[in-house]
Design a protein that fits this description.
This protein is of the alpha/beta class. The chain contains 27 helices and 29 strands. It folds into 5 domains: about 55 residues, Phosphorylase Kinase, domain 1 (2-Layer Sandwich), CATH 3.30.200.210; about 200 residues, Rossmann fold (3-Layer(aba) Sandwich), CATH 3.40.50; about 220 residues, 3-Layer(aba) Sandwich (Dimethylsulfoxide Reductase, domain 2); about 70 residues, no CATH class; about 130 residues, Barwin-like endoglucanases (Beta Barrel), CATH 2.40.40.20. The chain is about 30% helix and about 15% strand. It has a 7-stranded mixed β-sheet with strand order 5-4-19-18-17-6-7, with helices on one face. A 4-stranded parallel β-sheet has the order 11-10-9-13.
Length: about 750
């Protein structure tokens, strides 16, 4: 048979690169970057090539599994749904809807069916116990953005194509291709910036891959970002460097911020940061006096006890230096579909609220409709009304990816019932009673819902399926609708397409009113998320408004552009005040909850730095636990090593290549040591998502080199109180050599 060429968006990280996939006789022959792609222009990283491994992985589940007498057995889809219908409703009838819970992982962000239909399951369950991976890495940024700009996904992004100074704090975009910032080929864009005279400055406890190509790198003590950022803001006020620029008429609270940070002088924070006061002051001056500049921060600033404050202060710096919403500064993408900051009345809205309910045991507040992931174990363990007895997980492995995984694993074993939608029998799904296999990305159509709202350039791209679907397997959105029907008490026999038609008719009536019938008729040939996408595109900021703007976007137009690399919608443009959704219609620079929380770091200024702390690490090949089972990514040097500075290695008597015992109170692991001068002294770095040595999981390749689980060291009670985000970095540890004979 002849080769066929397919164009596909990579679903394996936030970069969303365009791919050219060659297929022969139903087999993937090659994967390379699509040079015509309007967004990534041919760039790919090693993860894209591993899509072939993922599709062909013999460990990937292809049929449902039901656990009988402690052993998983293959079952039909009808048998799996019948088992769920048999076991779930009695639990809900006896213990109430809050006895159920749902947990969704970050792969769902790359699956339009999961992302647009997961909420239907959660609403049908009617439970307050909703959890996601967001409180393991990004909720502080979402909360601070929501409080300032009025919506959770209104995130200010560096306009890297035009900036002359990019200050990167606690982020490694060269390895991640951006995080909460979709920017494929960051290295190429950074080099282009430097070639035109721009500067890249990195602040991080490790000399990361990004720091290695930067013009300057400064070490900082883990967890001290709030002190550095507050001192930089204080410097702007003290030296009269505050300039609001084009958004001056749309900002509230400038004086309140100045008063709130008055005590955070560079001299006061220098020791806590591990940086010279003059360095801190110089960074603030450089930012203020560069015409086109932006500050970007990510995982390192979010996964700490002051995550929301640090995330907020990043944007405070961008505002006060006149770089918010300005070309070359921090700007906002304009997504073609699904963006709340392009819908409804522009320039004003309801804003965001938190604490509409609280976790039963800890009292942690709800944020963005969910509770902190680190509350899950105790909510299962502690008896009483609302105790979690049944759990649905979707594309997630929290036993490895969340703090104190051993406690969570033990809690999962006590559940009355657990259902997982996943492509693997992994360290978490081994606890399930029913596993419903996910669909291979190559068998599914693709349109990114979230990432165009975080993209370095505006675009619209669609990918049809590359390969035919496994016989008999439902669409993932259909699976979620069937589960929702069971949760509502409608039974497992309900037809998913009929359920979808009825739901869409209700949505059309609510959104289109008198025009609902016309919308239903215009989309009658479509089902599920394709139908939702058609409506979102046509009513979005570039849409044809169902014929009112003939040149506008439709799903057909976006689909037709697949072979030519998608549709380029241009560089980022100023969007304030149009994109604001705050009640005041202004940028709220001084949210009261954030000003009040500054009392915590103020009281913490004199706390001595721990003798030794640990942080995570990102590697381009091992971003997530399930990537460790793919040969293309697993080959090469062992990457789950504990990086230790030579000074620390000498005083701790640990040697390169040997095992060390690492402990945090009663929690401990053993990890292989790698001595590295790229680390700040007194800081150890170990990547997350490892620990593939637990019984019952079926990840054969990953188990050959299981690695050490960083998260097994971490305290699941330690979190940022505002966002509920887990504290994953800057945690005090002890470390000692393990005798080689042991």
């Amino acid at each position: 048979m002849t080769d066929t060429i397919h164009h596909r968006i990579c679903p394996l990280c936030e970069a969303c690169c365009g791919l050219e996939i060659k297929v022969n006789n139903g087999k993937v022959v090659s994967i390379r970057g699509d040079a015509k792609d309007v967004f990534s222009a041919g760039y790919i990283c090693p993860k894209a090539v591993a899509l072939k491994d993922l599709h062909e992985d013999p460990d990937r589940l292809r049929t449902p599994l039901i656990k009988r007498n402690g052993v998983f057995e293959e079952a039909t889809w009808d048998e799996a749904f019948a088992e769920i219908e048999r076991r779930l409703p009695p639990i809900m009838a006896t213990h109430g809807r809050d006895a159920t819970s749902v947990l969704v992982g970050n792969p769902s962000a790359h699956k339009i069916g999961l992302l647009t239909y997961f909420g239907k399951l959660a609403r049908s369950l009617g439970t307050r116990n909703v959890f996601s991976a967001s409180t393991l890495d990004q909720m502080p940024k979402q909360l601070s953005s929501g409080l300032m700009f009025g919506h959770w996904i209104s995130v200010a992004l560096p306009d890297i194509a035009r900036t002359d100074l990019l200050l990167v704090i606690g982020a490694n975009p060269l390895a991640s291709n951006g995080s909460m910032w979709t920017v494929p080929d960051f290295k190429g864009k950074a080099k282009a910036m430097q070639a035109r005279g721009g500067k890249l400055i990195v602040i991080d406890p490790r000399r990361t891959e990004t720091a290695a190509v930067a013009d300057a790198h400064h070490f900082i003590r883990p967890g001290a970002d709030v002190f550095l950022l507050a001192a930089m803001v204080q410097t702007l006020f003290a030296e009269q460097l505050v300039r609001l620029g084009s958004v001056a008429a749309w900002v509230n609270g400038v004086d309140d911020v100045g008063q709130a940070v008055a005590a955070f002088t560079p001299e006061a924070v220098a020791a806590r940061c591990g940086m010279e006061a003059n360095t801190i002051r110089g960074l603030a001056r450089q930012l203020a006096t560069t015409e086109r500049a932006a500050v970007y921060a990510r995982i390192g600033t979010c996964t700490q006890e002051y995550g929301t404050l640090a995330s907020w202060l990043v944007d405070v710096l961008n505002v006060l230096t006149g770089h918010l919403d300005a070309p070359g500064g921090a700007m906002f993408a304009k997504s073609a579909a699904f963006a709340s900051n392009t819908a409804g009345k522009s320039g004003i809205g309801k804003g965001v609220t938190t604490g509409r309910h609280h976790a039963r045991v800890s009292g942690a507040p709800e944020v963005y409709g969910e509770l902190p992931m680190t509350c899950m174990a105790e909510e299962i363990e502690v008896a009483g009304p609302g105790q979690i007895r049944a759990l649905f997980t979707v594309a997630t492995n929290p036993v490895l990816s969340s703090p104190n995984g051993p406690r969570l694993a033990a809690a999962l074993d006590t559940l009355d019932f657990m259902v997982s939608m996943d492509i693997y029998l992994n360290e978490t799904t081994r606890h399930a009673d029913v596993i419903l296999p996910g669909v291979s990305p190559l068998e599914d159509f693709h349109y990114d819902v979230a990432f165009p709202q975080l993209s370095w350039r505006n675009h619209a791209r669609y990918s049809p399926p590359v390969l035919p679907r496994t016989d008999g397997a439902p669409e993932e959105w259909q699976t979620l609708l069937k589960l929702a029907a069971i949760a509502r008490g409608d039974g497992a026999q309900m037809d998913a397409n009929a359920l979808d038609d009825a739901q869409f008719a209700e949505d059309a009536q609510r959104l289109a009113g008198a025009n609902a019938a016309a919308v239903i008729q215009a989309t009658s040939a479509l089902k599920g998320p394709q139908r939702l996408l058609e409506v979102a595109l046509r009513t979005g900021p570039y849409g044809d408004m169902f014929g009112m703007k003939p040149d506008g976007l439709t799903l057909a137009k976006v689909m037709a552009a697949n072979s030519s690399g998608g549709i380029d919608l241009g560089e980022l443009q100023p969007r304030i005040p149009e994109m604001l959704r705050t009640p005041s219609g202004k940028v709220e620079l001084a949210p009261p909850s954030l000003l009040a929380d500054l009392a915590r770091p103020a009281a913490d200024l004199e706390r001595p730095a721990p003798d030794l702390v640990i942080i995570g690490r990102r590697d381009v090949r091992t971003n997530n636990s399930w990537m460790h089972n793919l040969p293309t990514l697993a080959k090469g040097p062992f990457r789950c090593t504990a990086l230790v500075h030579p000074i620390d290695a000498e005083r701790l008597n640990v040697k390169d290549g040997t095992l060390a015992h690492i402990a945090n109170g009663p929690r401990s692991i053993q990890a292989q040591v790698q001595i590295s001068a790229e680390m700040m002294p007194s800081v150890v770095s170990l990547p997350h998502g490892w620990g593939h040595n637990l019984p019952g999981a079926q990840l054969k390749l990953a188990a050959e080199r299981p690695g050490a689980n960083l998260n097994a060291l971490l305290d699941d009670q330690l979190r940022d109180p505002l966002s509920g985000n887990a504290v994953l970095g800057g945690v005090a540890i002890t470390m000692q050599a393990i005798p080689e004979t042991a």
